[in-house]
Design brief:
Blueprint lengths: L6 H11 L2 H7 L7 H11 L2 E2 L14 E3 L2 E3 L3 E3 L12 H12 L4 E2 L7 H7 L5 E4 L5 H13 L4 E5 L9 H5 L10 H7 L3 H9 L18 H11 L6 H11 L3 E6 L2 H9 L4 E4 L13 H12 L4 E4 L6 H9 L4 E4 L1 H10 L1 H21 L13 E2 L13
Parallel strand pairs: 4-11, 5-6, 6-7, 7-8, 8-9, 9-10, 10-11
Antiparallel strand pairs: 1-12, 2-3
Helix pairs in contact: 1-15, 4-16, 12-13, 14-16, 15-16
Length: 390
């Protein structure tokens, strides 16, 4: 077993083990990938204040997200096609999250179905919903999430229209997957991945096939997926979904203070400051750079979370110190999953847990809930003075 000391260690193993088209699917953004890069590099601009001669015994990074106890304020973000990164990927990630004591969020576009994940776990997980044109399908997904006893609905708002990711197009990454010659040659070298995929019964998109009208197999899924995201999604539809769901609602994809205020109006329990990992609007602000203005606008009125760009416990600390009550990791846990399966997800969580704990201590704090801007050194003008900004 290799010695894992940081998330990058898992990424290197993941890159060797998983077919290139799936590595590229994870490790890519839209268009020029500017926002994808800045999601991480903007965290690097923020420095930490070292404090000394403070009693560091009795530290705790346990917290709550939407009223649920968490071992640390980090959830596993919804990632589409996780089951193609490792056989039974969603199930393994959910089990790792449950054992560790953090939330797992299942994507609408998962390979393992909501029922399969529920059967394999013992505690409620969260479900992420995409709004489709087919209202019966959307209602069906809500009903299935209720039946699976999901404890929160994460409604994604920033995928009404799919952003273009050049790597996926060049890799011929389609549904069903139709790899080109280069990918077939690459697949022939990934024996471990291939043998696991041959053994699993979860090879389709379990939440879609057999549930969406006219989608009986992967071939029919392709045309359905291309046409089904609802470009008409607006705040009235969000209100209707909240009413139909009836439980805790988290709105994902908020990157502007005005939209954060609108989220208040529909009664969101939490919002996620997110640019979809840089996979939608290239040229948008990084999540950490957008966070301060949103905190100023709504931070005391709704629980604010953040995703996009988090690769370490120090990134988590910085987001929390700037006001977020929770964070999400996507690529960081996918690296672990693709590298070492369930054990790799656990190792990713352990790395982030240790980095957060030690960094918090060296900043002179003993409780993660006491983190604030006083532990940070933020560059002057970090938020930017943008012409035309509201």
């Amino acid at each position: 077993m290799p010695v894992i000391t940081e998330i990058e260690d898992l990424k290197r193993i993941y890159k060797r083990r998983v077919p290139k088209m799936f590595f590229d699917y994870c490790e890519s953004g839209s268009w020029t990938e500017q926002t994808f890069r800045e999601n991480s590099s903007d965290f690097d601009q923020i420095r930490l204040r070292q404090r000394v001669a403070v009693n560091m015994e009795g530290r705790s990074i346990a917290s709550q997200m939407i009223g649920q106890d968490v071992a640390m304020p980090v959830a596993l973000a919804p990632v589409g096609a996780t089951g193609m990164q490792h056989a039974d990927g969603e199930i393994l990630a959910a089990k790792a999250a449950e054992a560790f004591g953090v939330p797992f969020t299942l994507s609408t576009m998962s390979v393992c179905s909501i029922e399969a994940v529920a059967e394999a776990t013992t505690k409620p997980f969260w479900f992420q919903l995409y709004v489709m044109r087919d209202e019966a399908f959307v209602q069906g997904m809500i009903d299935r999430a209720k039946a699976a006893k999901c404890s929160a609905l994460v409604l994604t708002l920033d995928l009404q229209i799919l952003g273009q990711r050049h790597k996926d197009l060049k890799n011929k990454l389609t549904v069903p997957f139709k790899p080109n010659l280069a990918n077939l040659l690459d697949l022939s070298t990934k024996w471990g991945w291939g043998m696991e995929m041959m053994r699993t019964k979860h090879k389709s998109f379990g939440n879609i096939v057999g549930h969406a009208s006219g989608v009986s197999d992967l071939n029919s899924l392709s045309s359905w997926a291309a046409e089904s995201f609802d470009p008409r999604l607006d705040w009235d539809k969000v209100k209707a979904i909240k009413k139909a769901w009836g439980g805790p609602l988290i709105l994902k994809g908020i990157l502007d203070a005005e939209d954060a205020k609108m989220a208040l109006g529909v009664g969101a329990d939490a919002i996620i400051v997110s640019n979809h990992g840089g996979r939608q609007l290239d040229g948008a602000l990084s999540s950490i750079r957008a966070l301060p203005e949103i905190m100023d606008a709504v931070g005391d009125k709704v629980e604010v979370h953040l995703d996009s760009g988090i690769r370490s416990g120090q990134d988590v600390l910085k987001a929390l110190a700037m006001g977020a009550k929770g964070t999400y990791i996507g690529r960081a846990f996918i690296y672990g999953l693709g590298a070492l399966g369930q054990a790799g997800v656990t190792q990713a969580l352990e790395v982030i847990h240790k980095e957060l704990d030690v960094s918090m201590a060296l900043c002179g704090r003993r409780n993660v809930q006491d983190l604030d801007r006083d532990v940070l050194l933020i560059p002057q003008g970090f938020e930017g003075e943008w012409v035309g900004r509201g």
